[in-house]
Design goal:
Elements (H helix, E strand, L loop, with lengths): L2 E6 L5 H13 L2 E4 L13 E9 L2 E2 L1 H9 L6 E8 L8 H9 L3 E9 L12 H9 L5 H16 L2
Parallel strand pairs: 1-2, 1-3, 3-5, 5-6
Antiparallel strand pairs: 3-4
The protein binds flavin mononucleotide (FMN).
Length: 155
């Protein structure tokens, strides 16, 4: 099994933390999308795409990359970190991947710490920001390890 993870983690390296957990657990190649011009995915039979959530969506960089790739028959999974930590944000990328013929093997999400004033003045985000502090934490990491093991077992 040869696996690749491509991630975007431009804000706080929260998503990178999860990407590294996956890569350590299953021994795969890891690429920060910042360093990607072109990826040769031919030799990989599992590809994970991860991103932080920025204003309600995953990074446009990931979406643009996926658009360019030939993913027919490829096993893929999607992961994200966000203030709220819900898998919902992964859904549009999963749809995009499936529309390109990829086979979705899983979706993972957890909270990632942020400071509300970095992107909003809305009060509700102050509470969310407090709840997000310290994430991804040890519990998130355990969940991430379980997730990647399940994905690999399902191949
Ligand atoms: C510009 C910006 C916009 C954000 N928008 C959202 C959002 O819409 N929903 C949410 O739950 N979290 C949001 N967050 C919090 C991030 O998703 C969270 O901190 C995430 O872990 C960042 O990932 P990264 O450190 O890998 O870049 C936002 C953070 C920033 C900086």
């Amino acid at each position: 099994m040869k696996a690749l993870i491509v991630y975007c983690s431009d804000y706080n390296k929260n998503t990178e933390k999860i990407a590294r957990i996956f890569a350590e657990k299953v021994d795969c190649d890891l690429i920060n999308i910042r360093n990607v011009n072109e990826v040769n995915i031919e030799n990989y039979n599992l590809i994970g795409f991860g991103s932080g959530v920025y204003r309600e969506s995953l990074s446009p960089k990931i979406i643009r990359l996926v658009d360019k790739l030939n993913l027919k028959g490829k096993n893929v999974f999607v992961f994200s970190t966000s203030g709220v930590g819900i898998k919902f944000y992964n859904n549009s990328l999963i749809k995009q991947l499936e529309s390109k013929g990829a086979i979705n093997k899983g979706s993972f999400a957890c909270k990632g710490s942020f400071i509300a004033r970095d992107f909003t003045s809305k009060k509700i985000f102050d509470i969310m920001s407090k709840l997000s502090q310290g994430h991804p934490n040890d519990k998130d990491i355990k969940k991430a390890e379980r997730f990647i093991s399940d994905v690999v077992d399902s191949l």
